[in-house]
Amino acid sequence: MKKGLKTLALLLVLAMLFSMAACGSKSETPAQPSAPAANNEPSKPAETTKPAEPAKTEDRHYAVDKDTIVLGVADETPSLTARDHNAVEGSRMNYLTYNGLMELDDNLAPIPCLAESYTVEDQPDGSVKWIFKLRQGVKFHDGTEMHAEDVVASFAEAKASSYCATYASWDTCTEQDPYTVVLTTKEPSAALLYDLSHHGNYIVPKALIESGNDFNTNPIGTGPYKFVEWKISESVSFTRFDDYFLGAAPIKNVTYKIIPEGSARTIALQAHEIDYAVSVDTNDADLVLNDPSLQTVFLDGISHSWLTINNEVKPFDNRNVRKAMNAAINKEDVVTVAFNGYAIAAPGQTPYGMLGFDSTGYDTYDVELAKKYAAESGEDLSKVTFEVICSDDTKRRAGQVVQDCLNTNLGMTVELVSMDLATYLSETAAGHFQGFIGGYSSNNMMSFLKGVYHSSNIGASNKTRTNDKHLDELIEKACATVDNAAREEVLKETSRYLNDLCCQIPLWQPKSFVAGNKYIKDLTLRGDGRYFIEHWSWE
Question: What is d(CA 250, CA 522) in angstroms, rounded to the nearest whole number?
Fold first, then answer.
C-alpha cells in the first residue's frame, strides 16, 4: 500500500467520528445485555469550516424562510417505500418518514430506537432468542399507536422484498404481547442488530399493509417528518410530524430539489435557491470553500464505487478478462478527473476503512500486468465493444477515464450511455447491462458483503450477478461469528478472496463533501455520511 494510504489508515484507526446523535440518542439507553460485540467502524472526523462573523436576520438569505430547509440532490429517489429499493437517495427520504427497532450511534454501533431495550437468550438447540421491548406511546403519522403487531407485519414484508430480504436475517418473528416482539435466529448472529437498523426493516402500520396502502404515494411511518408531495423529476416535500416520539423537529418544512448537474447545484447554493447541497461537485470546491455565506463539511467516506461488469455476459465471465481490465485502469486519474482529488483510489474489492478490509492480492494499475492477464484469458479484447451506463455527470467523467484506459491499454471499445437513476437501478437489477459505474454505501462490512456479493441478492444489489458458493459460505460465516476479532479474520479472508476473484473493477472511495447556508446549526455528518435534518435549526 502506498505511503499516503498507510497514513490515512492510521488516521482512520485512531480517529472516531463526533457527529449528530442517532435516533435513540435523545432518550436514556438501557444497559446492554449480553449480545454480539459492536462492529465499530472508526472513521476520520468531519472537517467543518464556518465563517464566524454574525449577520443581521435580513441578511441570512433563506431559500424560502426560517420555517423551511431546501436541499439540492443530484438524483431522484426511485421509491418512497421502505422496502422497494436499495438506493442511497431512497434511504434519505426514508430517514424522514420511518424508524426501525434499532438505529446506529455516532460510532456506527447499533442502539435501540423504536425498541426501548432488548435481551438475548441462548437456547439449548443452539438457536438464539432476541426479545425486544417496544417504546409505548409511539404514534404513526395517521395518529394510530405502534404495537408489536405492526413490527411483525413490517418484518413479514421485509422478508418478501427482493431488495431487502438479505437484511431480514432472523428466522421467526412473533408478538409476545402488544409491546414485546421476539425474533429467533438459528445460530448466534453478529449481523442482526445492524440489519434491524437498515431501512428495509423500518416499521409501518399493519392496518395499512393489510388495506393495500401504496407506501410510495402515502409513506406512513413514525419518523420526524410527514410526506407532502412528490413532483417527479422536480422535488419531494415533507412537513414536521408534531407527535414525533423524540420531540418535534425545530424546522417545520423540508424540500428536496432534484438538480442533476453539479454546477447547477453550486449555482443554486450560492444564489441561496437551496439551503444545502447534499453533494458538492468537487470541480466547484474552490467556489464553495471561498464563499463566506456558506459552511462546508468534509468526511472520509466508506462507500465504495466501481465499474461493475455483468459476470454472466461474455467475455466478462472470464476472470482473467476482469483482472486485465482492473489492472488497465488508472484509478488515480479517475480520482483526479472525476473528483478533482476529493476521493481516494480504491485499494481493494472491499471498502477501505471498514473492519475486515485487506488489500492482499489486489492488482493496482499496471499496464504490462493487464496485457499478461489479457493474453492468459484467451480473448481478443480488441474486438470487444461494450456499453457503460453513467447516471450522473461525475460518473460520466470517471467513465471517460475508464474509456480511454481500456482503449489505450487493451484495445477495448467502450461506449458511455447516460441514464437517469431510477431507470439505471431497474435495468441493472434485472441484469440488462454490460457495464455501469455505480457504488454501494453501507455502515459495516457484513452488510456490504451480503448486499454486494451474496448470491441471494442477484436481481437486487448483487449487480455483478456473482454466484460463488465459497464466497457465500465466507459471508455467512462472518455474519455468524460473534467475537469481533474472530469475525475480523473471516472478513479479511473474504476480502482477499474477492481481490483474487475480481468480480468488478473498484475505482474510488469518495470524501463526503457537503455545504450549506452558514446559519444552519448542527450541520454535521455521521461516519457513513448521514445527516440529521430533524436536529437542524436556524441561528
Answer: 12
